[in-house]
Specification:
The complex is a heterodimer. By secondary structure, chain A is of the alpha+beta class. Chain A is 25% helix and 33% strand. Chain A has two domains: 50 residues, no CATH class; 139 residues, Immunoglobulins (Immunoglobulin-like, Sandwich), CATH 2.60.40. Chain A has a five-stranded mixed β-sheet with strand order 2-9-8-4-6, with no helix packed on it. The longest helix of chain A has 19 residues. Chain A is flat. By secondary structure, chain B is an all-alpha fold. Chain B is 73% helix and 0% strand. The longest helix of chain B is centred in the middle third of the chain and has 21 residues. Chain B is globular, with a radius of gyration of 19 Å. Classes of the chains: A alpha+beta, B mainly alpha. Chains A and B meet through helix 4, helix 5, strand 3, strand 6 and strand 7 of A and helix 1, helix 2, helix 3, helix 5 and helix 6 of B.
């Protein structure tokens, strides 16, 4: 067995799934090949590390609450929380760029002047995620979300598209839209995010600098617009 | 009287359901977290699965091996959600909430800061694998489901799973060696 042949069988070797004859050949090759010994060592380290990838522990009481909700024992009507297409109720702990939009649908005016609520800085030719947080007092079904992009950024996968519109449902509480943006050119621009429902619309502006460094307080500047 | 009988039956069903699924909730949550990368999304996925399964309690009672059966149900629920997300005009990222997981996990304190950094890089590399490679590595190499179990869970022949696993691992090794996966975007 040579190095190329051994490399092709590396996973079977690690999983002890080689035929007996192959295993003998593999062991014989390994004994005289430091390069393949290193390969095996690295692959074993990787396998070990995979088992160390953490998960947050199950929240205390979650199992009991979830079963009670499923069986109706909690006396509440079933309602799916979060995970609406495109949105998550989760708040990522690693959020660095964030804009918060607070919506009060029962008091939503017909048209609200856009308010500049946040500034974000994006590196040139890099993709960064801007988390738009839509904070609603109550669930909004069938809302139309429109994102109008400035010329200095684009959404990866949608080259050249300046306006993106789709319908979605917002849960009561915080809904996060992780919006990936790629810096196209060193420039300033304004992203306009609008939520429309039943003819009522609310818009917010996010100032976007590409290729410039903002002060930390500016990067995290987020104001509730309501 | 009728109401009383109905309530009693409902209570028995609820107790049976709880007895069946409660030993598996933690494992389902772990899997859901592996898929979604976010604690709240993982809880939502498990919650939705339980809501869907409760009316099927009699069917659950007939299942011999509930662990892989539940894992399969969770996987297909996740796939449905993932596909519906794909229909949205923006492909939403799946960057794992690594900071939160590391900070809250049972491993904290056991792992050196350097090891935690390495594991963060590893998770990011996994996040950049194709979905079929990512799911297989997470279920087999991370959560220790056997290939025989996965043959049933993923409804994929053993040979295909093996070659897919080998390609996924090779891709993962390459990503880690080259460092070609982007750093955290958040």
């Amino acid at each position: 067995m040579n190095c190329k042949q051994f490399e092709l069988r590396l996973d079977d070797y690690l999983d002890h799934e080689l035929f007996p004859g192959e295993a003998i050949d593999a062991d014989a090759h390994l004994k005289q090949c430091p390069a393949c010994q290193t390969r095996v060592e690295r692959a074993r380290t990787l396998q070990h590390m995979l088992k160390e990838i953490p998960t947050p522990p199950l929240r205390s009481g979650f199992a009991r609450e979830a079963i009670a909700r499923a069986t109706g024992s909690d006396g509440k009507k079933h309602q799916r929380r979060g995970f609406v297409a495109g949105f998550s109720t989760a708040i990522a702990a690693s959020v660095a760029l964030m804009a918060v939009i607070t919506l009060l649908p029962h008091s939503l005016p017909e048209q609200l002047a856009p308010v500049e609520i946040a500034q974000v800085a994006i590196s040139l030719e890099q993709t960064q995620t801007v988390n738009l947080v839509f904070n609603t007092a109550q669930a909004l079904d069938g809302a139309t979300l429109t994102i109008a992009l400035p010329a200095n950024v684009e959404v990866p996968g949608l080259p050249g598209q300046r306006t993106i519109t789709w319908q979605t449902n917002l849960q009561a509480g915080k809904n996060i839209l992780p919006l990936p943006l790629k810096g196209l050119r060193r420039d300033e621009g304004e992203l306009l995010a609008s939520i429309e429902q039943d003819g009522k619309i609310k818009s917010v502006r996010v100032h976007i600098s590409v290729g410039k460094t903002l002060q930390p307080q500016a990067r995290l500047h987020a104001l509730h617009s309501a | 009287m009728l109401f009383s009988l109905f309530s009693r039956k409902k209570r028995i069903d609820a107790d049976s359901f709880e007895a069946l699924v409660s030993p598996h909730v933690e494992q389902l949550y772990r899997l859901a977290y592996r898929y979604t990368g976010q604690q709240a999304d993982a809880e939502d996925l498990v919650q939705d699965l339980l809501i869907k399964l409760y009316p099927r309690t009699p069917e659950l009672q007939q299942v011999g091996q509930l662990k892989p059966w539940l894992a399969k149900s969770l996987y297909y629920l996740y796939v449905d959600r993932y596909r519906s997300q794909k229909r949205s005009p923006i492909e939403f990222g799946q960057e794992h909430d690594i900071e939160a997981a590391t900070a809250n996990s049972n491993h904290q304190g056991e792992l050196s800061p350097q090891r935690q950094d390495t594991i963060r890089d590893l998770q990011r590399a996994i996040d950049h694998l194709s979905d079929e490679h990512r799911i297989l590595i997470l279920m087999h190499d991370v959560e220790a489901y056997t290939l025989t179990e996965l043959e049933s869970i993923l409804e994929t022949p053993l040979g295909t799973l093996k070659s897919r696993l080998h390609r996924g691992r090779a891709k993962l090794r390459k990503l880690l060696e080259e460092g070609t996966f982007p750093a955290s975007q958040a």
